[in-house]
Amino acid sequence: MKILAISDIESKHLLDHFQPERYRDVDLIISAGDLKSNYLSYVVTMVNRPLLYVHGNHDKMLLQTPAEGCECIDDGVFDFKGIRIAGLGGCMTYNGGLLQFTEREMSRRIFKNKFKYRKGIDILVTHSPAFGLGDGKDQAHIGYQCFFKLLDKYEPKLMIHGHQHLNYGICNREHKYNSTRIINAYDHSIIEF
Fold first, then answer.
1. What angle is formed at CA 192 by the lines to CA 30 and CA 146, rounded to 5 degrees?
2. Is the separation of the CB atoms in 19 and 46 below 8 Å?
């Protein structure tokens, strides 16, 4: 399966230089947050594949006007052709914004979630990275330690996140945690799953 992962900025490759043949064998689009509703609707229309998304910390407008033709998977599990995809949007609290959560609040969201009733997850989609795996040093960009509970318990094959822009000085788009491949979806990335 081939996934087009997107987050944080509107990609010039998808807007200004769109080449349909480049995305012909994409099966699924996943947004890891901080993209406008009209951009998500544009991408799902142009690529013509299902698009799943979580909210980023700047997605207040997306809460009010959901993206047409797209599925929000925040705090849930979506089944795509037998692949269980879980979503947890938002980032670490830094100024009290709507889509910001303390470590404790995110841990509570995980505890209340229905992952266990779905017999695990295959792909974890978050906006924020896990602590120490592609996160930043400032309060706004530090990752969540509680994500390790999910990674340890369910061992998803893939974790897709956004939030940490690659031009912030983090050079690695990809990390590994035990058997989980972790990809930063900043801008866009095509992932073989």
1. 55
2. no
Q: How many domains does the chain have?
A: 1
The range of the structural domain enclosing residue 6 comes to 2-192
What secondary structure does DSSP assign to the chain, as a single string?
Answer: -EEEEEESS--HHHHTS--GGGGTT--EEEE-S---HHHHHHHHHHH-S-EEE---TT-HHHHHSPPTTEEE-BTEEEEETTEEEEEE--EE-SS--TTEE-HHHHHHHHHHSSGGGGT--SEEEESSPBTTSS--SSTTTPPBSTHHHHHHHH--SEEEE-SS-GGGT---SEEEETTEEEEE-BEEEEEE-
CB-based contact 117:107 (threshold 8 Å): no
Under the phi-then-psi rule, with left for phi > 0, alpha for psi from -120 to 50, and beta for the rest, what region is 77?
beta
Q: CATH number of the domain at 99, please.
A: 3.60.21.10
Can you give the pLDDT of all 193 residues of the chain as single tens digits?
999 999 999 999 999 889 999 999 999 999 999 999 999 999 999 999 999 999 999 999 999 999 999 999 999 999 999 999 999 999 999 999 999 999 999 999 998 876 666 678 999 999 999 999 999 889 999 999 999 999 999 999 999 999 998 877 666 899 999 999 999 999 999 999 9
